[in-house]
UniProtKB/TrEMBL annotation:
Residue span, DUF4352 domain: 75-181
Sorted UniProt keywords: Signal
Protein name, as recorded: DUF4352 domain-containing protein
Biased composition regions of type Basic and acidic residues, renumbered to the chain: 34-44
Chain spans, region Disordered: 26-60
Superkingdom field: Bacteria
UniProt-listed PROSITE patterns: PROKAR_LIPOPROTEIN (PS51257)
Entries under Gene3D superfamilies matching the protein: 2.60.40.1240
Keyword presence, Aminoacyl-tRNA synthetase: no
Taxonomic source organism: Coleofasciculus chthonoplastes PCC 7420
């Protein structure tokens, strides 16, 4: 092979290697991948709402209605007395674009055993089936007293639950689940529980 041919082959090999190196550069990324990642980053912290798994089929009750709940070891009366919007106070405020909806409730324990309720028993749902949990920050407000905790037989507990929802949210309903842990663990067959929530239109 003469000197000119060797030079041509060497030049072609160098160009080929350079092209491969540029094509495999780790700094080049698919624009769609970047856009997808940015979209995930934005949505990860925008809202605490979550879509309901399915539409609620339980009967809907009204404000002021005394609802009797009798199942297994439960014998309760549950009432949603009123609702209002709380403006917040000082540094304790809802996020911008949201508002705090206060739901005043009464739980009467008519059974023979003490019953304990926590915030996980309550949530609200809007007209789009988005659900919202209790806003724990609002419990620090001096005019908010939670209805949760232990209720002895024959006693009752009245208090306020606060939910943070977008300002334009409409048709809110309160969902009260007396047995959230048992129902979550799917122990209904063993305990004969009704896991349909109590639904009250606010």
């Amino acid at each position: 092979m003469d000197k000119n041919n060797r030079s041509k082959i060497g030049a072609i090999a160098s160009i080929t290697l350079l092209t491969l190196a540029l094509g495999c550069s780790p700094s080049e990324q698919n624009p769609e991948t970047i856009e997808s990642r940015e979209s995930r980053d934005r949505t990860s912290g925008e809202t605490t709402e979550s879509p309901a798994t399915k539409p609620i089929s339980a009967p809907t009750h009204s404000l002021g209605e005394v609802i009797s709940i009798s199942q297994n070891n439960l014998n309760l009366q549950f009432t949603v007395n009123s609702t209002r919007v709380h403006p917040g106070k000082g540094v304790i405020q809802p996020n911008k674009g949201n508002q705090w909806v206060v739901v005043d409730t009464t739980i009467v324990n008519q059974g023979q055993q003490a019953q304990t309720f926590s915030v996980v028993s309550f949530e609200v749902i809007d007209s789009n089936n988005n659900t919202y949990e209790v806003a724990l920050l609002a419990s620090a407000l001096e005019d908010i007293e939670t209805p949760t905790g232990e209720i002895s037989p024959g006693d009752q507990r009245q208090g306020q639950l606060v939910f943070e929802v977008p300002e334009d949210t409409t048709n809110l309903k309160l969902l009260f689940q007396p047995n959230p842990i048992e129902c979550e663990e799917k122990l209904t067959a063993a305990k004969g529980l009704d896991c349909q929530p109590i639904v009250v239109k606010l």
